[in-house]
Amino acid sequence: MTYSVAVSGASGYAGGELLRLIADHPEFDVRTVTAHSNAGQPLTAVQPHLRSYTHLTLAETNAENLRGHDIVFLALPHGASGAISAELDEHSLVIDCGADHRLESEADWAAFYGGDFFGAWQYGVPELPRTKGTQRDRLAGATRIAAPGCNASTVALSLAPGIRAGVIDERDLVTVLAVGPSGAGKSLKTHLLASEMLGSASAYAVGGSHRHIPEIQQALRWAGANAPTISFTPLLVPMSRGILATSTAKLAPGADAASVRAAWTDAYAGETFVQVLPEGQFPRTADVLGANTALIGLAVDEAAGRVVVVAAVDNLVKGTAGAAIQSANIALGLPEATGLSVNGVAP
Amino acid sequence: MTYSVAVSGASGYAGGELLRLIADHPEFDVRTVTAHSNAGQPLTAVQPHLRSYTHLTLAETNAENLRGHDIVFLALPHGASGAISAELDEHSLVIDCGADHRLESEADWAAFYGGDFFGAWQYGVPELPRTKGTQRDRLAGATRIAAPGCNASTVALSLAPGIRAGVIDERDLVTVLAVGPSGAGKSLKTHLLASEMLGSASAYAVGGSHRHIPEIQQALRWAGANAPTISFTPLLVPMSRGILATSTAKLAPGADAASVRAAWTDAYAGETFVQVLPEGQFPRTADVLGANTALIGLAVDEAAGRVVVVAAVDNLVKGTAGAAIQSANIALGLPEATGLSVNGVAP
Amino acid sequence: MTYSVAVSGASGYAGGELLRLIADHPEFDVRTVTAHSNAGQPLTAVQPHLRSYTHLTLAETNAENLRGHDIVFLALPHGASGAISAELDEHSLVIDCGADHRLESEADWAAFYGGDFFGAWQYGVPELPRTKGTQRDRLAGATRIAAPGCNASTVALSLAPGIRAGVIDERDLVTVLAVGPSGAGKSLKTHLLASEMLGSASAYAVGGSHRHIPEIQQALRWAGANAPTISFTPLLVPMSRGILATSTAKLAPGADAASVRAAWTDAYAGETFVQVLPEGQFPRTADVLGANTALIGLAVDEAAGRVVVVAAVDNLVKGTAGAAIQSANIALGLPEATGLSVNGVAP
Amino acid sequence: MTYSVAVSGASGYAGGELLRLIADHPEFDVRTVTAHSNAGQPLTAVQPHLRSYTHLTLAETNAENLRGHDIVFLALPHGASGAISAELDEHSLVIDCGADHRLESEADWAAFYGGDFFGAWQYGVPELPRTKGTQRDRLAGATRIAAPGCNASTVALSLAPGIRAGVIDERDLVTVLAVGPSGAGKSLKTHLLASEMLGSASAYAVGGSHRHIPEIQQALRWAGANAPTISFTPLLVPMSRGILATSTAKLAPGADAASVRAAWTDAYAGETFVQVLPEGQFPRTADVLGANTALIGLAVDEAAGRVVVVAAVDNLVKGTAGAAIQSANIALGLPEATGLSVNGVAP
Predict the structure, then answer these.
(1) CATH code, B287
(2) What is the CA radius of gyration of chain B?
(3) Residue C210: inside a domain, yes or no?
(4) Are A48 and B287 an interchain contact pair (Cβ–Cβ within 8 Å)?
(5) Chain A environment of C178 (Cβ under 8 Å)
(6) Catalytic center at which residues (chains A, B, C, D) (predicted)?
């Protein structure tokens, strides 16, 4: 069967990545691409790397243009998808790559985003361990799915196995992430200029203000945490894509290197797209560039009493567009890996 | 039908890229991967990005291990493939990604390489215009194919249309290429260290010593040139992959902007993997990262009396491994694009 | 003696670099820094790397604020310096880092810039060979100096020695430059975003439209050319600073490797800031990062009949701010190298 | 007065940086440069960016060549300086940029390095707060100084103010550092190749094995800690130089945002080379590139109960060669900032 697909926000990075991945999906057929200021232009004028779409022109992003498709991907700024999603066909599968439908708590929404609260959809991180089963169980048959925040899902996948197994302390989690600028989108901001970023690393949202924090806490609660606290610092580093998240947690009483490793390998046993590396190996972001893979390396630092989890993810794939397509596959009953690659483009 | 495949030099960049691409090829099945100093190791210990091959171990590179496969890809240092290829099965399709079987002229070989001369195989750049037809015509049914030099094929594809159409002068061609270091392989050389290359550009093989020069001249002769001369300067720039080749040629008498553009668009009309961009557009290497696409932009500089051709290619894909697989598809009678993507991984 | 200094455009890259260099100049004292949209802010809020200026606040860029200083550096957008310079004190030394006072030919100005023509000031590239002497001779005692275009001065220094000595043909020059994005300033343009540039090379102003072309031709005429033609293609590559210019020219009849090398080594004998490398050596941009040095490597390609000149320059130092300060030193009768470093910051 | 200087390890990154900085030092005169495998070559053949030293040739690194100078800088692999330093003149000022003379504890040495233990020299981080005064007090008149580890000094400067003031808990410190590859020297290792690092981030020495850990703990004990524990994870990111260290610590009981900020601003009040940024500002490594400056940004994350300290340092300057020269200035009674710049080379 072929599913008709519309992609909104097709001129941005997430929208472009959705299109790149869908080009290899044998059952998805892109009929409509929409944008805002670039509406009316050929898609390849804005996304010159998408050579298989030379026939498409960007339409205006509005409900009328998005209706009538089997699947609608929303890759819009925060606030915009919430507004438009109410107008879409009920029976369409709608996947929001923005933040509007990720948080269950209106208080969290108000504290970190503000504006209208749209309520949570099914969270699109299939492998995420929950106290019972995984998030995958909730995606089958879903018609409304919230693709995750790229940093949030990387950290949630990093820490949830230890929370669920009780081998780490949910209090006093500390995460520092090296991230590329594409996570910030095509926004024209001085600090995102190449001149500013080439050869330089910097921190932002220091001190607990990053919007992905409540999303991480929500995911960890699903894995069994009560009131997890996390110090979360993202660093902008000069690579176009990629997240390398270093997350540390205190060992729970009684936990040791063996029980720690078992917690993670058990959680991801049999998973295609989340792989725990052997003892002593740690991932590079290049290993997952362009791939829907999360690679996780694990160590126990006995002297510091902490587990250290290093995870590499491509923010635009496993962190956004790949998660969206993988979740769509599950929702539709297709083989989960359809159209997604496990191999990174390296070097 | 499934073809059994062996990849030698699987621990290097070209070998790794062959494997990455073959993972998406529905009819190729990798049975054997070989290496030299890394023999005995799991493939993913050396190529951690190739997650779909966690089951493979590197065998020793020798004829015994490579024999018995339908297809053998050689990704070995110059000199090594020539030696081993004589020992492979006659009926196997053998594709050499090294230089040993590219040059028809023993004098050129002696001048630019030296050592044993192995003779030329069919040259693996299907779209290359020849005075009659394209190089593709010679690849159907071939059993011995020489994948091109990445710089050479990029420049040959850039200039051959103008040579064949007679709109440019074959004398006094000038090409400067910005290239990433992966073209130099994993060699441990000081100038290839990240500390040396990050934030810096440099030239090498200045003054006519680069080994790809005779390969370009050979390709241009196939397109109708007699004794083309080319000033060829490669620049190392800080991107892991990619070639951006700026090639200029003097306008032939009577040629104008229209006849120039027609020469290139005619040459590549209907091609999937070589695309001429519209007037005023020029490619970025990011547009072809990971893709088997060559993008070509074209301008006529009236004041300077020169055509300027800017071509972007991923040196490891269209420049090497993708060309090898595309040529193998043709040789075997498979759809030419099988297993190859036209879309770049950008940003 | 201490000279009072004002720097306009102090929030931009050229202005910032002037301030960085002046901080090490024992006789220049920055009293006033001006900006446009950032006026009113502490300098270090906009230029956080300039730690020796934590006491300065950006004033509005206007003639009133710039008057009354011994030296005024203008680092303003094209058109703006021409307008303001008429209002400055006659006895002040005014150095324009913009384009407004570089071109002698009103026709060139009209063709490449347009708008009001302001006329040429003394051109601030001291080492530039002229048919008699060097450009330095015209800078002593000057009160109005035009700092060069960074690409233009790099190419002019690359080719002028050969023109003056008659060892290269002035027709059919070809230059390709790998340049970093800081030459384009802090402009908020999509193609200058880090996401777009990291890992990617691209060409711009292809086909003879770059504004530095007439400036190069003017400099080559000063060295003895009549009507030089040049194919000029700049490439954006992912390094924050630096120009690596590869310039080629046809050997003049009778010229050989020895006479070619002599032309360049004679032209720059005794120069501190322009150095010709020994046979077989070619520069990296990292070698001149932060330095006021132009490094030049030279080869003769006998087969192609061309001289190849590779020059490395820091676009913000020798290409702009360093050239401005070096020229100011000469104008004021100070030792030419005051406040300027010859050593690059590498790796 | 002019001091005669010898620099050993002059072909490496630390040695090269010493020479670059000393070129601007009015009282230091480099007489001898030594190397190992590069002995006999002109210095600029190996360090082409050091244009003010075109007259120097690399001698063999041995005690004979290093003796007879007022100041000897050792920039040698671990183990080598310890061996050679015993043979140097007693009255010379000897500054070791290696690890051999940093640790006071033989047990720490044995655990993290092994081999001969050479004992500690005065530690060359002048601004480091100690329970009484600063480390500067111990450097005046010293003749044997150990320049710090670049990561260690960055973290020690980040955390020592809070330890001394009692506003943070010495247990459960967590630091993640984004570092460039030049800290690893010119070693020819696969993971340091540009192809491997461009566009990629990775972690190393995960889980408590990094050799700078005991050096940090030692410095924190000097500031008043008893038995500090630290989880320490360095990340290799694609910038040639720079350290961005994100260090977090639990707030001590009773500490609040005001007392935290006061601890750091008091500790570094009046310092030229360690500057605490205003509330809400955080440093970029580009801000200190080439400079002897450590920039520190500070936040209190109330929800996580942690102080977050972000520090930017140029690993080769403030982290190594600049620290060495600053310490030498103090030892000799020269103005501390002689020859050192506070301004970074940005963008």
Answers:
(1) 3.30.360.10
(2) 19
(3) yes
(4) yes
(5) none
(6) 150
- Decide if D51 and C293 are in contact by the 8 Å CB cutoff: yes
User: Are A323 and A284 in a shared domain?
Assistant: no
For residue C31, the distance in angstroms to the closest alpha carbon of chain D comes to 18
SS3 D25: coil
The CA distance from B271 to the nearest CA of chain D, in Å, is: 31
The C-alpha atoms of residue D2 and residue D266 are separated, in whole angstroms, by 36
CB contact under 8 A, A341 and B286: no
CATH number of the domain bearing residue C44: 3.40.50.720
Q: Does D196 touch chain B (CB under 8 A)?
A: yes
Residue D218 falls inside a structural domain = yes
Instruction: Name the DSSP letter for residue B44.
Output: H
Q: Based on the domain organization, do A164 and A307 belong to the same domain? A: yes
- The reply to whether A150 belongs to the active site is yes
Q: What is the pLDDT of residues B238-268, one digit of tens each?
A: 999 999 999 999 999 999 999 999 999 999 9
**D60, D39 Cβ separation under 8 angstroms:** yes
Which residues of B fall within a CB distance of 8 Å from A281? 48
Nearest by CB to C345, from D283, D289, D347: name it. Answer: D289
| Token pair 């898609």: residue | A43
Q: Is D65 exposed, middle or buried (0-12, 13-18, 19+ CB in 10 A)?
A: middle
Go through C241-276 and write b for each residue having 16 or more CB atoms within 10 A of its CB, e for each that does not: bbbbbbbbbbbbeebeeebbbebbeebbeebbbbbb
Domain assignment present for residue D338? The answer is no
Residue A137 sits in the same domain as residue A163: no
By residue range, what is the domain housing residue B106? 3-148+317-332
In a domain, residue A8? The reply is yes
pTM of the model: 0.97
Q: Is the bond preceding A228 in cis, omega lying within 30 degrees of 0? A: no
**B180 and D197 in contact by Cβ < 8 A?**
no
C194, A199: Cβ pair inside 8 Å?
no
Q: Are residues A115 and A161 in the same domain?
A: no
Please indicate, yes or no, whether residues A215 and A89 belong to a single structural domain of this protein.
Answer: no
Q: How many domains is chain A built from?
A: 2
Q: Are residues C36 and C111 in the same domain?
A: yes
Radius of gyration of chain D measured on its C-alpha atoms: 19
pLDDT in tens, B50-59: 999 999 999 9
The answer to whether C318 and C293 have CB atoms below 8 angstroms apart is yes
Cα(A278)–Cα(A255) distance, integer angstroms: 19
How far is residue A132's CA from residue B261's CA, in Å, rounded to a whole number?
Answer: 63
Domain co-membership, A117 together with A214: no
ipTM for the complex shown? 0.96
pLDDT digits (tens, 9 = 90+) for D306-329: 999 999 999 999 999 999 999 999
Using a CB–CB cutoff of 8 Å, tell me whether C194 touches chain A.
yes
For chain B, say whether C112 makes contact (Cβ under 8 Å).
Answer: no
The distance in angstroms from the start CA to the end CA of chain B is: 36
